[in-house]
Inverse folding.
């Protein structure tokens, strides 16, 4: 089992802020719009250095999406910034009609996703956004795992022609991915194994790595794959791995319905039948608490991934 280590923790939203600032220096067509959450989205550096390309839209998310769509007509590459909850359910009609249906080149930057924004509570802890966004034709859906990957994904999103939903989080988490490496739709192999495939996305990638180390101590060889792009999904990487290991665990900070696990299940039922276990939130809203408390309560820890892996292996027969 390859040991992934880290020397620091950073929040993924800061990775977005760093990537956006870098884009500001690289491309004069990149503009940024924010719904009164500049500090929370770490857009301060872009605002300071490129004030003529920063637009504070106030608490008017629907208007922000429509303005961003209009900017693309003039060749601009707009990034909209607010919490994931407000980036999706509050403005779904505008995204569907003005961005996805129209194929506009808008990049929707969604922070504070999942349970790990913690104490803000259930009304802000969006757990259905991946499902909402992946169902929209033309929409690319990205869910990054650490600071480095979020920064690289932000830059890659700007280079991609078409709508992108970029999902990231609030808490400081381990930084373990290499800098500057990101290809939309291409899964990243973290550890090769033979007994079980574990595919994870977002904050659950680190939990999957920890789970792999625990399984290795018990003589179980886990193949661990970082699925940063939910749509388009790297079906080839998933199928190649599952055909080798014979079973799979999907791990995500999202509802079971509509998330990565559901997408993987769709691939398996049509192309290669194999036992699958889900590590995800099971049809419930969250609550107020620390990120660690919520991950434990809702079954999203490395220990939960270990238990799911063992169950999947048992089902192989």
């Amino acid at each position: 089992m390859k040991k992934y280590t880290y020397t620091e923790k950073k929040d993924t939203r800061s990775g977005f802020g760093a990537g956006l600032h870098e884009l500001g220096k690289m491309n004069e067509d990149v503009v940024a719009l924010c719904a009164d959450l500049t500090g929370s989205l770490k857009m301060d550096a872009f605002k300071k250095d490129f004030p003529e390309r920063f637009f504070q839209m106030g608490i008017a998310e629907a208007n922000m999406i429509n303005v961003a769509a209009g900017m693309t007509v003039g060749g601009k590459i707009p990034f909209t910034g607010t919490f994931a909850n407000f980036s999706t359910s509050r403005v779904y009609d505008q995204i569907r009609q003005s961005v996805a249906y129209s194929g506009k080149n808008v990049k929707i930057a969604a922070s504070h996703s999942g349970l790990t924004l913690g104490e803000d509570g259930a009304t802000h802890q969006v757990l259905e956004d991946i499902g909402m966004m992946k169902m929209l034709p033309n929409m690319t859906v990205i869910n990054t795992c650490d600071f480095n990957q979020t920064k690289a994904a932000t830059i890659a999103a700007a280079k991609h022609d078409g709508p992108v939903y970029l999902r990231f989080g609030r808490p400081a988490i381990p930084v373990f991915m290499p800098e500057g490496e990101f290809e939309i739709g291409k899964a990243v192999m973290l550890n090769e194994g033979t007994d079980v495939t574990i595919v994870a996305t977002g904050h659950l990638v680190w939990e999957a790595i920890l789970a792999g180390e625990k399984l290795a101590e018990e003589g179980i060889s886990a193949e661990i794959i970082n699925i940063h792009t939910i749509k388009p999904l790297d079906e080839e990487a998933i199928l190649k791995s599952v055909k080798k290991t014979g079973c799979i665990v999907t791990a995500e900070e999202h509802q079971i319905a509509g998330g990565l696990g559901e997408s993987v299940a769709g691939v398996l039922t049509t192309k290669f039948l194999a036992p699958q276990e889900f590590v995800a939130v099971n049809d419930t809203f969250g609550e107020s608490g620390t990120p660690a408390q919520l991950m434990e309560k809702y079954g999203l820890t490395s220990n939960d991934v270990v238990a799911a892996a063992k169950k999947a292996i048992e089902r192989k027969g």
Summary: The CA atoms of residues 59 and 90 lie 11 Å apart.
